Amino acid sequence: MPYTLQGRNVLITGGSRGLGAEIARKFAAEGSNIAINYHSKEAPAKELSRELESQYHIKTTVLQGDAGNVSDIERCVRETVESLGGLDIIIGNAGWTRFSQFDNLDDLSYDEWDKCWNTNVKGNHALLKTAMPIFQANPDGGVFIMTSSVAGKSLSGSSMAYSVTKAAQIHLMKCLANTQGPKSGGKVRVNAILPGLLLTDWGNLYGEERIAGLKNMAALKRETKLDDCAQTFVDVAKNTSWTGQAIHIDSGLNVGHM
C-alpha cells in the first residue's frame, strides 16, 4: 500500500518561516497535522498555524524549542504526541550558521562551532533517538527527513563550520538509515534533502553579487525554487523505497562546481 499523508502527524523543526513554513504548507495540503517548532520568534509560527488550520482544516500546534538543545528536542517530540495524538514524520529543518570567511580560522569562535554542531548534527540524532519508540509502535513506522545542503558536498556555504557539519549530517543520515531501518529491526526511513540557493529571507543575506554568482554557477543558471524544494519533502515521505539518500534539489549547483 502507498504511504499516504492524510491524517499523519508531522513535526517540523525550524518550521515557522522560509523553507520550513513552505514544507508545512505542502504537508498540510496533503491532510497532515503539523507541529511547528520555532526558536525565538513566536508570531510567525502562530500566524502560520492559523493559516494552515483555516485553509486545510487540520490540527496544528506551535512549539518553542532550541533544535540544538537535547532537552528542548525531547520536550518538542513529547508535546507533539500530546497535542496531535501521535507522531509519524519528522522534518529536521532547523539549522544554524553565521556568515564568515572560510580562510579566516578566527572568524568563528569555538562556541559558534559547537552551536553549529549541536544544531546541524547532534540535534538530528536526538530527534530520531527520542522518536524511535513512537515510530516503532506505529503500524507504518516513521519517516525522518533532514534538511541538509549542497554545502555538505562541496567546500562552500556560509561558513566552514556549516559546510563541515552539513557533511557530518549527511553521514549521520546514512548511518541512521542503515542502523534504524528494517534490516536492523527498525521501522524508519531516513533521507536528506540538499537544497541549493533558496531566496528566502536568510538566502537573500548573501547579497546581490554572491547571489548572481551562485545562479551563474548552477547548471540551470538560476536559484532553487522554494516550491520545488518543499515539494520534494512530501515526495520523499510518500516513497517507501527511498532511504539513506542525499537528494540534491539545487538547479544543478552541485554539478556546476565540477
From TrEMBL:
GO terms for molecular function: oxidoreductase activity. Keywords: NADP, Oxidoreductase. Pfam families: adh_short_C2. Belongs to the short-chain dehydrogenases/reductases (SDR) family. This is Short chain dehydrogenase.
